[in-house]
């Protein structure tokens, strides 16, 4: 087994893991959403999410993780095996598209961009006796 074959195998394994995460996440999200699994980080006073909204958030999280694994697999194969200008350019386009998808999903799931901080709970909500 030469180095190129090992890297290709690792890349294929990470590709498979990315797709598996998305598929398993989609399947596992269904019963969680039907049971009403609410996120832990809901803002104080927020209403519970509907089954549809819960499923979208859970599915979005699994897609995000799967996309990260697929990007990692592309990087492994492109940089370690065939680092030509053409393959790096194709990788850059793939990473840009997947990054845009990740940002869009993060905005959909959390309601804020990835670089934005989580909203703080106001002092009056923390200490109701004041």
Which helices and strands appear, and what pairs or packs with what?
Layout lengths: L2 H32 L16 H30 L4 H26 L12 H4 L4
Structure, explained:
The protein is mostly helical and 130 residues long. It has helices at residues 3-34, 51-80, 85-110, 123-126. 71% of the residues lie in helices and 0% in strands. The mean pLDDT is 79.
Q: What is the element string, with H for helices and E for strands?
A: HHHH
Write down how many β-strands occur, each being a DSSP E stretch of 2 or more residues: 0
Low-confidence stretches: none
> What coarse outline follows from CA principal-axis ratios?
elongated
Whole-number mean pLDDT: 79
Rounded to an integer in angstroms, the radius of gyration calculated over CA atoms is 20 Å
Considering DSSP H and I runs of 4 or more, what fraction of the residues is helical?
over 70%
Strand content: under 5%
| Intertermini distance | 70 Å
Main beta-sheet strand count, sense and barrel state: none
Discrete helix count = 4
Find the structural class using helix and strand composition.
mainly alpha
Brief account:
The protein has 130 residues and is an all-alpha fold.
Keyphrases for this structure?
130 residues, mainly alpha, 4 helices, elongated, 71% helix
């Amino acid at each position: 087994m030469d180095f190129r074959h090992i890297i290709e195998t690792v890349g294929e394994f990470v590709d498979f893991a990315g797709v598996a995460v998305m598929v398993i996440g989609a399947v596992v999200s269904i019963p969680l959403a039907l049971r009403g699994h609410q996120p832990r980080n809901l803002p104080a006073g927020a209403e519970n999410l509907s089954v549809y909204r819960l499923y979208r958030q859970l599915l979005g999280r699994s897609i995000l993780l799967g996309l990260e694994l697929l990007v990692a697999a592309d990087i492994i194969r492109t940089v370690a095996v065939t680092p030509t200008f053409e393959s790096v350019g194709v990788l850059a386009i793939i990473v840009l598209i997947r990054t845009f998808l990740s940002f869009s999903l993060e905005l959909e799931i959390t309601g804020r961009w990835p670089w934005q901080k989580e909203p703080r709970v106001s002092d009056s909500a923390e200490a109701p006796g004041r």
